[in-house]
Amino acid sequence: MDDRIDIKENYVYQLNKSLLAILLKDRSSKKNIIWATDSYLKRGNGYFPLDNITVKAITGRNGVVIKPRVEKSKREQSVRIKQKAEVFTPSWICNAQNNLVDNAWFGRENVFNCEKDKTWLSIKEKIIFPTGKSWQDYVKENRLEISCGEAPYLVSRYDTVTGKWLDVNERIGLLDRKLRVINENVESEDDWVKWAMIAFKSIYGFEWQGDSLLIARENLLFTFIDYYVEKFGNYPIDEHLKEFAKVISWNIWQMDGVKFVIPNSYSSIPKIHDSLIDNDEKEKSCQDCSKNSNKLTDIYCKVKNWETNRSIKFISLLKNKS
Questions:
Q1: CA angle 280, 286, 289 (to 5 degrees)
Q2: Is 113 exposed, middle or buried (0-12, 13-18, 19+ CB in 10 A)?
Q3: How far apart are CA 274 and CA 278, in angstroms?
Q4: Whole-angstrom Cα distance, residue 142 to residue 92?
Q5: Starting from the edge strand earliest in sequence, which strands make up the sheet with 143-145, in order?
Q6: Average pLDDT of span 244-266
Q7: Alpha-carbon span 316 to 300, nearest angstrom
Q8: Cβ–Cβ contacts within 10 Å for residue 243, how many?
Q9: Exposure string (b/e) for 5-16, b if CB count within 10 Å is 16 or more?
Q10: Measured distance CA(142)–CA(203) in Å, rounded
Q11: Reduced 3-state DSSP string for the chain
């Protein structure tokens, strides 16, 4: 397995001590994201589904705690599929579906690559934009990956099934495509950072399980690093890393995609592992939730409106569309 695939939390912590803390932030609760999975129960206190993930819990002597799916055992992959319907889509399918989005936007096929036998061949020539549309328009387009897992539709540092490392010029994620366009059209570092920030602010995704969410956030941050290094040949400064990490912590958030709240965040549910709650207690908790629906109002997940720089409930965006 390529060492570049698994972004070790100890490495992120050593890179800049505040980075990991930023990537663990839950902007809705103003605390940290929670584990929201029972995969780590054997580690004891601090690793239960409703426990917040702390820097201490995933660094130092605790060793490598969180791993991408391709490095998990087949047994653990199977358990997570059965319990949480966790399925990571092969990169070639992500590419094919992302291509459909771009086919519609550009009005033509094979813009970024040509699909071939469950893989693809990247187009090497500079991307040409249709009449009436510019590269800036493309970078500004909002994109959302629901139940994003490790965010394979947004960024593709590696193939989620085979674990193969993908060079920058082979990547197929929605954010990858925006950054490619920026690399092709921007020369100065200041302008590049400006447009890269616009691209990151246009990309969204939500996920239930905290470990997958952290991996998704790390994948986005290191995608920024990869493209920056590809363009300028050196590492971005700490200030840029922290600013992009803050945007990522807003735009890639933890959410129950059915109720639009933090997973298992109902105030009436006891904060113990779900398997320890008997059926009668579960039913009572659900009844309490329905009777006291106002208790949920302050745990609805929030996202940032980057134009106004104000946070809003994600559910309000859906209501406005209906």
A1: 140
A2: buried
A3: 9
A4: 22
A5: 143-145, 203-207, 252-254
A6: 93
A7: 10
A8: 17
A9: bbbbbbebbebe
A10: 6
A11: CCCCCCCCHHHHHHHCCCHHHHHCEECCCCEECECCCCCCHHHCCCCCCCCECCCHHHCHHHCCCCCCHHHCCHHHHHHHHHHHCCCCCCHHHHHHHHHHHHHHHHCCCCCCEEEECCEEEECCCCCCCCCCCCHHHHHHCCEEECCCCCCCCCCCCECCCCCCECCHHHCCCHHHHHHHHHHHHCCCHHHHHHHHHHHHHCEEEEECCHHHHHHHHHHHHHHHHHHHHHHHCCCCCHHHHHHHHHHHHHHEEECECCCCECCCCCCCCCCCCHHHCCHHHHHHHHHHHHHCHHHHHHHECEEEECCCCEEEEHHHHHHHHC
pLDDT in tens, 15-42: 999 999 999 999 999 999 999 999 999 9
- Residue identified by tokens 């549309």 is 133
Could you give the CA distance from residue 87 to residue 91 in angstroms, rounded to a whole number? Answer: 12
Residue 295, CA distances (Å) to 52, 92, 261, 267 in order: 20, 43, 11, 7
According to the model, what pLDDT value does residue 286 have? 44
Question: Rounded distance, CA 272 to CA 5, Å?
Answer: 33
Question: What integer best gives the mean pLDDT of the chain?
Answer: 87
* Residue 82: C-alpha distances to residues 85, 88, 213, 258 (Å): 6, 13, 19, 18
